[in-house]
Amino acid sequence: MKIGKASTELGRRNGIEKNRRSYSLDIDWHVHTTxxxxxxxxxxxxxxxxxxxxxxxxCFTEHIDFDPRDTGYNWFHWNAYIxxxxxxxxxxxxxxxxxxxxxxxxxFSTGLLDFLDDxxxxxxxxxxxxxxxxxxxxxxxxxxxxxxxxxxxxxxEALDLLNRDIxxxxxxxxxxxxxxxxxxxxxxxxxxxxLTEPVIDAIIKHDVSLEINSRVLRKGLSxxxxxxxxxxxxxxxxxxxxxxxxxxxxxxxxxFQFDAIRTRLATLLANCK
Length: 273
Ligand SMILES: [Zn+2]
Ligand SMILES: [Zn+2]
Known about the structure:
By secondary structure, the chain is an alpha/beta fold. The chain has helices spanning 3-20, 43-52, 78-91, 109-117, 140-143, 147-162, 176-180, 192-195, 197-205, 215-218, 228-236, 258-271; strands at 27-31, 57-64, 96-103, 123-127, 130-131, 134-135, 169-170, 209-213, 242-245.
């Protein structure tokens, strides 16, 4: 496969879809099943729970990891996943959406683009999990990097992903803050918007949906990811496309804090009109 050709085709295909697509705030757009290495969720149980929670749908976004350092390396199998999704769709018509959480790294771009080339899902979530020094959820990743060096590398990976026009959504924007805050005491969440502006510009330019991730609320942060001030600035900068994801790995986490997030989003959007 030629990367340039595939990238263009994917960009065109996803671009057309993106223009038609909006992301209902009544759907949990980021849920992992056992098709991801670190989740215990059975999709049928997830649908039953999501319906009880009053959600209108659920998107099963599975980790796609090409980095051998990741425990999810070689875990995902497309045929098994799509077979399970089809069976779940039959039991819950109109409720189930398919997706990937693409762990983007420029180093593995050839494999990732090859993987995407012949597969269609409802949502491709782009995420940056790995840097050269390690995973953003490992403290050791940050010990060898200054804040500037960390941000330079993270921004480089994020822009490399967004400029290829292959993802519909961008997952958990400042998730790195959860573990990085200990090593970067001068890093304030409210500053992250200004420190990463090229990435925000690219999200808006490429019509990518910013994920409001509620997982960090279960991990000790008081605001979703990104923070409310960040989201307000995003709206003021012209960004409009958002979706909510719980990033669930067990059933009871699905739809976590969605009511509160929807209410706050509506207020912010009304103030930015
Ligand atoms: Zn992630
Ligand atoms: Zn995830």
